[in-house]
Design goal:
Helix content: 40-55%
Shape: globular
Number of domains: 2
Radius of gyration: 23 Å
CATH topology of the largest domain: Alpha-Beta Plaits
CATH class of the largest domain: Alpha Beta
Number of strands: 4
Structural class: alpha+beta
Largest sheet: 4 strands, antiparallel
CATH architecture of the largest domain: 2-Layer Sandwich
Number of helices: 4
């Protein structure tokens, strides 16, 4: 290999190493920031009557979840149905900080969403709520 080829290879390796170190450093910082800041508000609903589930599913998807996303000021919300127990519906709302999630209970935004839920579903759907603090993750 000629000297100029070695230099180019060396500079390419140096660039790759610098990038890897920067990337790893940023990933560590990103994980640390995520771990310290993320929190979730979870709503667990029990839709006991199988006949209510299709209507509930449509209403939650088209109305309630988008309204809650806006009312709570979150960037990410999602929902799931239980497979072990098909009567269980879970909704998750991701907050940028634990403090923001902890401010939700008792807020006008949550009170409005609860009132609308109760108006539509009454006592046919029971639910509980939980604030979850992000503790960490692993990925492959």
């Amino acid at each position: 290999m000629r000297h100029w080829q070695m230099r180019r290879l060396s500079s390419g390796v140096d660039r790759a190493l610098r990038y890897a170190v920067q990337y790893a450093g940023s990933r560590r910082a990103e994980f640390r920031e995520t771990r310290m800041s993320k929190a979730f508000f979870m709503v667990r609903a029990v839709v006991a009557d199988p006949a209510d589930r299709p209507g509930f599913d449509t209403w939650y998807e088209k109305e309630h979840l988008p309204d809650a996303l806006t009312a709570f000021g979150v960037a990410h919300a999602w929902r799931c149905w239980g497979k072990t127990d098909p009567s269980l519906h879970f909704a998750f709302y991701e907050f940028a900080s634990l403090a923001a999630a902890e401010a939700l209970p008792g807020s006008p935004a949550l009170s409005k969403m609860i009132a609308e839920f109760d108006r539509v579903w009454g006592s046919r759907v029971t639910r509980s709520r939980e604030i979850l603090e992000f503790a960490g993750e692993l990925r492959r």
